Amino acid sequence: MKVCVFLLFSAIICVNAELPKIRFEYKYSFKGPHIVQKDRSVPFWEYQGDAIASDDNIRITPSLRSKKGSVWTKSAANFENWSVEVVFKVTGRGRVGADGLAVWFTEMKGIEGPVFGSNDYWKGLAVFFDSFDNDGQNNPSNMHNNPYIMAMVNDGTKQYEHQNDGINQQLGGCMRDFRNKPFPIRAKIEYYQHVLTVFFNSGLTNNKDDFELCLRAENVILPKSGYFGVSAATGGLADDHDVLAFLTHSLVPPGQKVESRIDETEKAKFDKEFDQYYEQLEKQKKEYQQQHPDKQEHFENPENAYENQADRELRMIFEGQNFIHQTLKELGKRFDELLGRQELVLSRVSQMSQGGVAVPQGGAQQGGAVPMIDTIKRHEVDRVLNTQNELIQEARQIRNIVNDVQQRANIIQNSMGQGGQQVQHGGGAGGGVNPQMALVMHELQENLRLVKTDVAHMLNRPQGAGGCPLPPPCLSSSVFFVAIAIQLAILIGYMVYRQNKENQAKKFF
Ligand SMILES: [Ca+2]
Ligand SMILES: [Ca+2]
C-alpha cells in the first residue's frame, strides 16, 4: 500500500516536473484588432504575393483564380521547442474549394512557389490544409479523401507530390472539413522535444478550447532556428484564405535555463534612449522648479507629495463617514417632509368632519324645512327662501286686489238695489227687466264667490309646504284679476247706461 502511494506521488511529481515553461513570443505572433499599422505593414511580419493585410485578418489569397500569397516572420525564431496556434477561415461559394493553406516552420524564409503558394524543396516543417482532392479520380477505391490536414517534413531534397496530395510523404494527418465553418478554424501545432502534435478545432462551436488530436509524430527533427509562415494558393477553384491570428509560444523544458535572448545592440540602443529621456526629464523638472518656487518643499521632500498608507485609510474612513452623514441628513429631511404631509392630511380630515356637522346645524336655524343634506349649498338655500318670500308677497297682493274688487262689487250691488227700488216706486212697469238683471247679478256674484274661494284656498295653503316653488301659471294672477275687474266695470257701466236709458224712455210715455 505504502509503495503504491509513493509511486502515485512520484508519478504526480514527474508529471508536474515535465510541464514546460511557456512564454508568449510577440515577435512571432499577430492578432486582431489592429493587425496593420498606418503604413499597412504588420509589425514583425512581412506579407507578399496576393496577400492583403487588414485590421482584423491577413487575407493570404482572395477567392480569385490562380492566386498565391504568404506571410512570414521577419526574423528567425531561435527557440527549439514551440507551440503555435493558427486561427483562420477558408471560405468560398463552391461546394469544392482550392487549393489550400500551409503553415510553415522553415530554415529559410519561403518564396512564392508551387506548394500552396510557397516554394518546394524546403527545409523544415509544413502543415497542409489541402482543400482540393487531386488524386480523387485515380483513387483505387474512388473515394474522395479531401479536405485533408497533414504534416510533412522536408530536408530540402523532396518535391511535394501534388498529383496524389502528398499522401505518401506525410508524417500523419486527418481528414477534416475546414471550409465554410460558422466559427474560425484553429490549429495548434506543437513541437516539443522532437514530438510533433497537431490539434484541430473544427470551428463548429465558439469554444476556443474544443481541440481534437489530428496527428502525433515522434522523432521529428526540425531546424533549431527557423521562420514561421503561412501561405495559400487558389487554382481553377478559389477560396478566401484569411488568417485571423498567429500566436506563438516558446516551450522551455523544466531544468533548462531560459536563455537571455536580448540582442546586445538592441539593449545598447534602448539604454541610450533611456538616458536621453532621463536627462530630458531632469531638465524639465528643474525648469518647473524655477517657474514654481512656491512648491519648493514638495521637491525637497518628495514624500510630502504622496500620502502614506495610514493617511489614505484615514481619509477613506473619513470620506465614508461623511457619506453616511450626508445620507442620514437626507433621510432626516425626507422624514420631516413626510411628517409635515401627514399633519396636513390629519388637519384636513378633522376640518372635513367638523364641516359636515356645521351645515345641518345652520340649515335648522334658518328654516327647518331645508333638507339637511351636505350637498345643498348655502346659496341654494338662500334662493329657495327668496322664492318663497316672493310667493308670499304676491299672494298678499292678490288678496288685496280681490278685497278691493269685492268692496266695489258690494258698492255697485247696493246702488243697484237702491235704483231698483226707485224704479219700482216710480211706475211699477220695469218688472220685465229687473228679473234678468237680478239673474245676471246673481251669476256675477256666484262667479265672484268662486274666484274668492279659489283665492282664499290658495292663500290658506300652508306657506312652506314642501318649500317647493309653485308651478308657473300660464297667465299671471294679477293680470287675470285686472282683466276680470275691467270686464265687470264695463258690464256694470253698460247696465247702468241701459237702465238710465230705459228710465228716460219711460218718462216720455
Ligand atoms: Ca490537393
Ligand atoms: Ca486526395
Automatic annotation (TrEMBL):
<dbReference type="GO" id="GO:0030134">
    <property type="term" value="C:COPII-coated ER to Golgi transport vesicle"/>
</dbReference>
<dbReference type="GO" id="GO:0000139">
    <property type="term" value="C:Golgi membrane"/>
</dbReference>
<feature type="transmembrane region" description="Helical">
    <location>
        <begin position="478"/>
        <end position="497"/>
    </location>
</feature>
<feature type="signal peptide">
    <location>
        <begin position="1"/>
        <end position="17"/>
    </location>
</feature>
<keyword id="KW-0732">Signal</keyword>
<keyword id="KW-0812">Transmembrane</keyword>
<keyword id="KW-1133">Transmembrane helix</keyword>
<keyword id="KW-0472">Membrane</keyword>
<dbReference type="Pfam" id="PF03388">
    <property type="entry name" value="Lectin_leg-like"/>
</dbReference>
<dbReference type="InterPro" id="IPR013320">
    <property type="entry name" value="ConA-like_dom_sf"/>
</dbReference>
<dbReference type="GO" id="GO:0005789">
    <property type="term" value="C:endoplasmic reticulum membrane"/>
</dbReference>
<dbReference type="GO" id="GO:0006888">
    <property type="term" value="P:endoplasmic reticulum to Golgi vesicle-mediated transport"/>
</dbReference>
<feature type="coiled-coil region">
    <location>
        <begin position="267"/>
        <end position="298"/>
    </location>
</feature>
<keyword id="KW-0430">Lectin</keyword>
<dbReference type="GO" id="GO:0033116">
    <property type="term" value="C:endoplasmic reticulum-Golgi intermediate compartment membrane"/>
</dbReference>
<feature type="domain" description="L-type lectin-like">
    <location>
        <begin position="22"/>
        <end position="251"/>
    </location>
</feature>
<dbReference type="GO" id="GO:0005537">
    <property type="term" value="F:D-mannose binding"/>
</dbReference>
<protein>
    <recommendedName>
        <fullName>L-type lectin-like domain-containing protein</fullName>
    </recommendedName>
</protein>
<dbReference type="InterPro" id="IPR051136">
    <property type="entry name" value="Intracellular_Lectin-GPT"/>
</dbReference>
<dbReference type="InterPro" id="IPR005052">
    <property type="entry name" value="Lectin_leg"/>
</dbReference>
<keyword id="KW-1015">Disulfide bond</keyword>
<keyword id="KW-0175">Coiled coil</keyword>
